[in-house]
Amino acid sequence: MTTILAVQSRIDSTRLPGKALLPLAGEPILARVLQSMKLVPADRYFLATDPGSAERLAPIAEQWGFECFIGPRDDVLERFCLLIQESGADRVIRATGDNPFLFHEAAAALIPEFERRRCDYITWKGLPHGSGVELFSAASLLKARAAASSYDQEHVGPALYNHPDIFRSLMLEAPPQWNFPCFRTTIDTPEDYRQAVRLASILNSEGQSSAPCSSELLRDQLCPSPENSSGRDFPFSADRIVRACGIRSRPVLCVPSVVQGRGTGHIRRCVSIASALGGDILIPENSGISNIAELLVSPALGDTALLEDFRIRNTPGRAGEYSLIVADLFSMERDGDRAGVPGARELSSLAPLAALDEGGKFHCYCDYLADIIPSSEISRRANSVNPGFITLPRNRREAFPARIDRVLVVIGGEDPAGFTVPAALTFASLGCDVDAILNAVPPGASVSSASPVRWLKEVPCLREKLAEYDLVVTHYGFTAFEAAAANCAVLLLATTPLHEKLSRSLGFTVLRPRDMSPKVFSGFIEEPRKLLPAEHDTAPHSGAALSPDIRGAKAADTISAGNLAGFIASLAAGKRILCPLCGLGTGAGNHTFGEDPVEARFPDRTIRRCRRCGMLYLSWVQQGDTEYNTAYFFEEYKKQYGKTYLEDFDSIKEQGLRRMGYIESALGSPRQAGAEKRRRNGKPALLDIGCAYGPFLSAAAEYGWEPYGTDISPEAVRYVTDTLHLPASVSEFAEFDPASAFGRLTFDAVTMWYVIEHFDNLVPVLDKISSMLKTGGIFAFSTPSASGVTGRFSAETFFRESPRDHFTLWQPEKTARILKRWGFARYRILSTGHHAERFPKKGRGSLLRRTFGDGKT
Fold first, then answer.
1. Distance in angstroms (rounded) separating the CA atoms of residues 336 and 10
2. CA–CA separation, 480 and 425 (whole Å)
3. Do 426 and 409 touch, CB atoms closer than 8 A?
């Protein structure tokens, strides 16, 4: 039986002309469809098109291993019937060329269903609109051809399934992993295209949580080039598409600085991000930038584009509208700036907030801080520092200049300090060939058309032209790093005291205004090597003067592979978490999320301390939920402990027996009213939440208790019930009902061993535990202690090594106050040891004599 796969496509779409050729992650949309469908098993693969489209589409088909078949333009049914007759096909898998996110797994799964059910037509229902295909009998379609209506001729499939009296058509309910009819992945309109660009960016950045800066650009910042395709992960699996669809439903909002005097680089960077992600840009109506219209041009499509690949708005919108707000403001104000840009407090109330190169004092409102331009003088810590996001020029000088002839002066798009004119005229007076970029003449300056300086406006893709100059005179910013990488001499002018410090700390030569004289400039012209970074006077110029992280990188390409747009997409997939005990967020009384102090920042998470209850908690985390499945208990557990969970079962049970001794002691205490009465009424009952494979349940049974367990892992619960023969239930604790699971409502003890820290909302958990405990019952739990040796002597290490699914970091001294809210009184806290090997310089003997090690509460 011959199976062909045919993708239907043409150029002259009514709602979105030429959509098959629009770029998506570096390739035409049609190429992405063909690439995905090539994973579906078939004997031959065809592109079914019309005469007017064949010339432009056939090369794409050939590139991806598809034969091009040309048939009628409007009668698509006839086109397929002619293809069947020519190919001799017995069955046809049909897809359309405007669906680049097809579920190729679902398409492949139709083939055995078609064979088993012996039907004329089959497809899945419930897939995202644009992710499905259909499979039909070739003979049946030829038979349907004679009685087809005009609608049938245009859509093919209806010629079969609209005639149930003649043909057997099946529309199977898609399995749960594919059943998401609320999502839309097809491309019919310009808005669909923007959504597809956003979805592709999210997909390409997915899975980069440990190093989110490593993916590539969908579109090169400001200067797109063919090699920056970012599509090497195509085609994507259905589960990845589903996850990304949930994220894509809310775009990213970029908020650049529009305060006059702060330069135009912030706007350019936001345009680059927004256009690559199909996001929005906030530009208040009273923007202070004079040439704002020229700056707001898509770097990918240009000002002649028919499609709008990003949107401009003058208000920040409503809470929940965006998945992420990216602030590129130089220095955020708390309550808004003079240009009308909202402040940090308002922005953080609308969505998770990430800031780029933030230099203000209200960074506590930011979920994420990313430093791109090195900022060694800023005392606060960033989540990530990656100068690799500076897109360095491809064009570079072969050697550092031996003399200075050509000079470029570029002190920002606005030059608020007014340095451009005097610097340019001075170098020109010394005989240099000078270009100067000046959008507007600063007050008090005089520019004559007869001047020896060529006065230029904004230069598109300036970084690729820097290599034409011997010397670039600029200020601390992207151009300085780009010029250094282009192997030019670089002279910085100090526009602010902070920028002077930053420039000197990274080895640049920097001048204050009072030092800008013909004598000083002449010295640089005569001896350009004075402009080499101080640390490299005797070494070949390496495009350095960058930062300690990348200084000395001979091939600057190694640091320019960063993908800022993809990185932002990965942040948009992150999750903000409020205090799991208090849930304080913006609008909760007089408290705001941003006022919980930040304790630590890492590339994949941010940790805060709640001002109300004192709990340390994970306030933002990169996407990627931990799955507590067989791999977790066997592979992940073995990585940490050297053996699988079941191999360690006996030692875990032995620890459980000790814990049962403590629980028995607590229940027998005179303070535990009714303990003896409970004993007389039969075995005490215990519920172990997160019981895993049941070692503690086994210990409790050995102590004569009646143990019950609940866990979210079906494999673990199956082991408990089938091997240990103890009652256990598969359930998320939030949905757990002890009455339906075990026929009882209350327990004498409830336990959680290294489980409590995995809940990002503890209020309903503790409410339920409190309600399930009998009067005088015991709630016993263990959790890593943030007050142990690691937490006390190296808090940074403790926070860094804390797993990213630990949402709360408990400190024993705060437990009594926290749990009092649920009616608990602290009975006993035990410290079970510490990891002395983490502190080789502290003196192991002195630590072991103390009792506050890496204890477990």
1. 50
2. 20
3. no
Residue of higher predicted confidence among 508 and 309: 508
H-helix or E-strand spanning residue 282? strand 280-282
Structure-block tokens of residue 416:
């608020």
Q: Residues 34-58: what's their mean pLDDT?
A: 96
| Burial readout 359-392 (b: 16 or more C-beta within 10 A, e: otherwise) | bbebbbbbbbbbbbbbbeebebebbbbbbbbbbb
Q: What is the pLDDT of residue 209?
A: 36
Cα(655)–Cα(634) distance, integer angstroms: 19
**Six-digit token string for 682:** 């039969």
- What is the structure's pLDDT at 214? 27
Q: How many CB atoms are located within 10 Å of the residue 589 CB?
A: 7
As given in the structure block, the two tokens for residue 377 are: 């003088």
Asked if residue 357 has pLDDT above 70, the reply is yes
Rounded CA-CA distance 818/815 in Å is 5
- Determine how β-strand 616-621 pairs with β-strand 605-609: antiparallel
- Which pLDDT band, with edges at 50, 70 and 90, does 593 fall under? low
Distance CA 510, CA 503 (A): 6
Write down the pLDDT at residue 852.
Answer: 25
User: What is d(CA 203, CA 626) in angstroms, rounded to the nearest whole number?
Assistant: 19
Partners of 711 in the β-ladder: 730
Show Cβ contacts of residue 384 under 8 Å, excluding neighbours closer than 6 positions. Answer: 212, 213, 369, 370, 371, 603
Which helix or strand (DSSP H or E) is residue 489 part of? strand 489-493
The pLDDT tens digits of the residues spanning 645-681 come to 888 899 999 999 999 999 988 877 544 444 454 455 6
Provide the pLDDT for residue 211: 34
Residue 496 is encoded by which pair of tokens? 């602010």
Residue pair 244/203 in contact (Cβ under 8 Å)? The answer is yes
Residue with tokens 């893709």: 461
Residue 285, classified by CB atoms within 10 Å of its CB into exposed (0-12), middle (13-18) or buried (19+), is exposed
Residue 278's pLDDT band (cuts 50, 70, 90)? confident
Cα atoms found within 13 Å of the Cα of residue 382, Cβ hemisphere only: 21
